[in-house]
UniProtKB/TrEMBL annotation:
Belongs to the AHA1 family. CDD domains: SRPBCC_CalC_Aha1-like. It holds the Pfam family AHSA1. Residues 10-137 form the Activator of Hsp90 ATPase homologue 1/2-like C-terminal domain. It comes from Cytobacillus depressus. This is SRPBCC domain-containing protein. InterPro entries: ASHA1/2-like_C (IPR013538), START-like_dom_sf (IPR023393).
């Protein structure tokens, strides 16, 4: 199964890429305490972290290998929201005075745990891209106080 989303962000591909490839960028719009190491070959590790997340105030950590990072064009990594790792790919395309951002996540099985994770991530990525857009276009930073 595959999740697909796309959005237009009125920010340059360089700015979008810089946000997707730094811990500070992720922590501004999606996570807190994320760690990201990216080497000169476009490989590395990403550990996404959320503190006191959701109604249960859970601490969540997930992440894995960064598979590809091509400046201002691609960023791809693995994480494990279900039974096994999935691959998340961001493609950036210049458009007008901004960036068309395409997100694809694939690798889910038909197990009950993966189906639940896939539905949750399909909704979650849609919401997350709105947060990314708000951050890059208006400078709105996601703070713990505003998370559900």
């Amino acid at each position: 199964m595959r999740i697909n989303h796309q959005t237009y962000i009125k920010a340059s591909p360089e700015k979008v890429y810089a946000t997707l490839t730094t811990a500070e960028g992720w922590n501004a719009w999606f996570t807190d305490h994320t760690a990201l190491h990216l080497d000169e070959n476009g490989k590395g590790k990403i550990i996404l972290r959320w503190s006191n997340y959701g109604v249960g105030k859970e601490n969540i950590e997930d992440g894995g290998d960064i598979l590809a990072a091509v400046p201002n064009k691609w960023f791809s990594f693995q994480w494990s929201p279900g039974n096994k790792p999935t691959t998340v790919k961001f493609e950036l395309r210049p458009s007008k005075d901004g960036t068309l951002l395409f997100l694809e996540e694939e690798g889910y099985t038909i197990s009950p745990e993966d189906l639940t994770a896939c539905v949750g991530c399909a909704v979650g990525w849609g919401e997350a891209l709105v947060l990314l857009k708000m951050y890059l276009e208006f400078g709105i930073v996601c703070k713990e106080d505003y998370r559900f």
